Amino acid sequence: MWLFLLILAIPLIEIGLFVEFGGAIGVWPTLAWVLISAILGIFILRRVATKGAVTLGADMAEMGNPLSPIAHRVLLVVAAVLLLLPGFLTDALGLLLLLKPVRTLLIALIARRLKLGPRPAGGAQGSPDVIEGEWLEVDENDPPRRDKPSEWTRH
Description:
The chain is an all-alpha fold. It has a domain at 28-115. The chain has 5 helices and no strands.
């Protein structure tokens, strides 16, 4: 539900910001801002695409952790896409994502939320997601048994 409200709210916020900023700075500076931010977004996308493979190979050769550079590149692509979208809110978010400390903080928050870390070596053994139980296969043609109470009510 909150995702639907967010999807509905962003265009409304963008329209309101266009009206406010467009009235304050004028039509031509507003259009120039939209074009310059789109050009910046295209430039960032091209840069990430061309230099990404080279630096990823260098990260792997140094035996460094490739997940952090990959996450930074993904966030740079998100920033570029936000800059491509016309609007002041998306441009502000895209410009924030261009700052490395903001990306690092966001990566740390996402990693903490996903609880990335070492997994148990035994696979599912010791995993809190495993629920052990017994089961009995019931034939659909057999009538239900009424001679004894349900085992669900036993205490």
